[in-house]
Amino acid sequence: MQDKAIDTSRLKDSGWESFRPELFLNEPGRQARDQSAFFLQLLADYSRGKQVLEVCSGAGKLLIQLARAGYDMVGLDLNARMLEICKGAMAAEPADVQRRIRLVQGDMCAFELCQEFDLIILEDDAFALPLTQEDQISCLTAIARHLKRDGYLILCCTTPQRKLGAQGTPGYDPIHQIETEQCEWAAVDEGGNIQTIREGFERRRFVYPNELELLLRIAGLEPVERWGDEQRAPFVDPAKQEYCYLIRRKP
Asked: pLDDT by residue (tens digit) across 48-64?
């Protein structure tokens, strides 16, 4: 992890300083979520190497799973608390798995790792955290700098189709495609009962697929595949609220 002072204002702008990471991580649905099979199959199908970067790696669940499978992982995240949780999880892993993981505290829109990667992962709607088109282009440009010539980016987003409503829609700015939402977290108490905790807020900028494809081209990238979910189903129904792109550098 980096020791020098880092601008963490993006955490405040997006709401990530307004709630405890444990509330996000301990929701029953998130605990059950397992993306490893999807990404391992992508690596098997498309990657010629073992160097993988996860942008916004958070508590490192996917990072550790891929390291267990033999991939050399770099986890980039701006949130120091999430990185500390990840370090705690890594400590329970065998030494060879720990050696395959490097953690870096850094801004997804302005990072320089002096390394190129076979696969870069940006998923779980993390691309919605930069709240302007300019910042989203900066994020994609930074990613493009770190992709090998034959490397790929996998980017998963949600479409604003259901969110884009009238000007008066509570919590949604249709001009800038930004949703501000007060957070309600599902937590399990000692008796196994699910309770709701209201703490903090999230602010996200939603991007249409066609808009994303333009942002990619501006950043020197191009889409190769577009799927409707992480099972690679065809993208035919925007109401599903999810789409995944396989992306490479433009020739």
From this structure: 899 999 999 999 999 99
Query: Would you give the DSSP letter of residue 73?
Result: E
Retrieve residue 66's tokens: 């891929």
Contact 31, 5 (CB under 8 A): no
**Distant-in-sequence, close-in-space partners of 211: CB < 8 Å, separation ≥ 6:** none
Q: Per CATH, which fold does 9-27+34-159+206-249 belong to? A: Rossmann fold (3.40.50)
- Six-digit token string for 94: 């065998």
Instruction: Tell me which of 7-16, 65-74, 162-171, 180-189 is least confident.
Output: 162-171
Q: Beta-strand (E) ranges in 124-189?
A: 147-157, 172-173, 178-188
Sign of the CA dihedral running 45, 49, 55, 60: positive
User: Does the pTM exceed 0.85?
Assistant: yes
Number of residues assigned to the chain? 251
Contact 89, 24 (CB under 8 A): no
Contacts of 203 (CB under 8 A, 6+ apart): 13, 14, 15, 131, 178, 179, 180, 181
Extents of the domains making up the chain? 9-27+34-159+206-249
Q: What is the pLDDT of residue 2?
A: 47
pLDDT (average), residues 191-212: 91
